C-alpha cells in the first residue's frame, strides 16, 4: 500500500490508511497527524502502520522526536515507530502503560504540555471518560484541534465501509461522539468542564482519527457536538 503524507497547513501533515476492525465490523480508517516543531523535529499523533513510503517522507521533512499515543485505544502501531526512531520519546495517555507493558514510555500525558512542545502545542486530558483517557491537542499556529475517538466525522455515504460498526454506533453521518463513546463518558460534569476548556482554544480546523477533516467552522461544531452534556 502506498500512503503519502498530505500537507494541510504550514508544518502540519496527515497520513491516512484503512483500519479494519475485528470480525465483520468493517473499515473505519485511521489518520496520523504530523506537526513540525520550531527546531525541525516532528510530533507524531496517533501513528498509523509504518509503511516504507511513510518513513521515507517523514525522513524528508524532519527527524521524529515525539511519538504520541493519545488515548488508551490508540497505540497499536507505536512500537514500530519506537524501533525505527530510537532518538524519539514515546508519550502515553494515562492508563496505557499498564496495558502495553511491552513498551517503555517516556512520559504520561496530562493537561500540561511536555517541555519539548510547550508553547507550540497545547493539550487537555478529557475528563469523565476513564476508559478512553483521550488527550486532545491544539496547534495554535494552524488553528487546529486534534481529536482521536471523542469525535468521529464519517460521511453518511461511507457507512457501507463499516456497515455493522455504523449500525451499532450511529457514527456515520454524524459529527461528534457516537453512541458507544457517549456511554464511555461516565461523568458528564467532568466532561462538561473539559469541553469548556477545549472551547477556550481559538481553533477552526478539526482533525479526527476516523472520518473527514473538518477544515472550517470547527469551534461551533465541537460545541454543538457536546451540547447534550
Description:
The protein is built from seven helices and 15 strands. By secondary structure, it is an alpha/beta fold. It has a single domain (6-224), classed as Metallo-beta-lactamase, Chain A. Strands 1-2-5-6-7-8-9 form a seven-stranded mixed beta sheet. Strand 1 and strand 2 (12-17) form a beta hairpin. The protein starts with 5 loop residues before the first strand and ends with a helix. The mean pLDDT is 95.
Brief account:
This protein has 229 residues and is of the alpha/beta class. It has helices spanning 52-61, 78-84, 96-99, 163-169, 179-184, 188-198, 218-225, and strands spanning 6-9, 12-17, 20-21, 26-27, 30-36, 42-45, 64-69, 89-92, 107-108, 122-125, 135-139, 144-146, 152-154, 174-176, 205-207. The strands form 4 sheets. Strands 1-2-5-6-7-8-9 form a 7-stranded mixed β-sheet. It has a 4-stranded mixed β-sheet with strand order 10-11-12-15, covered by helices on one side.
| CATH-assigned homologous superfamily | Ribonuclease Z/Hydroxyacylglutathione hydrolase-like
Succession of helices and strands: EEEEEEHEHEHEEEEEHEHHEH
Q: Taking all residues together, what is the mean pLDDT?
A: 95
Helix content: 10-25%
How much is the radius of gyration in Å? 16 Å
What distinguishing features does this structure have?
15 strands, 25% strand, 229 residues, alpha/beta
Topology (elements, then pairings):
Elements: E1 6-9, E2 12-17, E3 20-21, E4 26-27, E5 30-36, E6 42-45, H1 52-61, E7 64-69, H2 78-84, E8 89-92, H3 96-99, E9 107-108, E10 122-125, E11 135-139, E12 144-146, E13 152-154, H4 163-169, E14 174-176, H5 179-184, H6 188-198, E15 205-207, H7 218-225
Parallel strand pairs: 6-7, 7-8, 8-9, 12-15
Antiparallel strand pairs: 1-2, 2-5, 3-4, 5-6, 10-11, 11-12, 13-14
Amino acid at each position: 500500500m502506498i500512503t503519502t503524507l498530505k500537507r494541510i497547513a504550514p508544518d502540519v501533515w496527515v497520513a491516512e490508511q484503512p483500519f479494519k476492525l475485528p470480525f465483520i465490523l468493517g473499515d473505519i480508517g485511521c489518520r496520523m497527524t504530523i506537526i513540525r516543531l520550531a527546531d525541525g523535529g516532528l510530533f507524531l499523533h496517533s501513528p498509523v502502520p509504518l509503511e516504507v513510503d511513510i518513513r521515507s517522507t517523514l525522513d524528508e521533512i524532519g527527524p521524529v522526536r515525539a511519538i504520541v499515543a493519545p488515548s488508551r485505544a490508540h497505540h497499536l502501531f507505536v512500537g514500530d515507530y519506537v524501533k525505527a526512531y530510537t532518538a524519539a520519546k514515546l508519550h502515553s495517555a494515562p492508563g496505557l502503560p499498564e496495558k502495553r507493558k511491552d513498551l517503555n514510555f517516556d512520559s504520561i500525558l496530562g493537561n500540561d504540555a511536555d517541555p519539548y512542545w510547550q508553547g507550540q502545542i497545547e493539550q487537555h486530558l478529557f475528563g469523565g471518560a476513564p476508559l478512553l483517557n483521550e488527550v486532545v491537542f491544539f496547534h495554535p499556529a494552524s488553528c487546529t484541534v486534534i481529536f482521536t475517538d471523542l469525535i468521529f466525522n464519517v460521511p453518511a455515504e461511507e457507512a457501507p465501509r463499516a456497515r455493522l460498526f455504523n449500525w451499532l454506533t450511529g457514527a456515520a453521518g454524524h459529527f461528534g461522539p457516537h453512541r458507544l463513546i457517549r456511554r464511555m463518558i461516565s461523568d458528564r460534569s467532568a466532561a462538561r468542564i473539559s469541553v469548556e476548556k477545549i472551547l477556550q482554544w481559538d481553533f477552526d480546523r478539526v482533525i479526527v482519527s476516523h472520518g473527514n477533516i473538518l477544515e472550517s467552522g470547527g469551534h461551533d461544531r465541537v460545541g454543538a457536538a457536546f451540547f447534550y452534556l
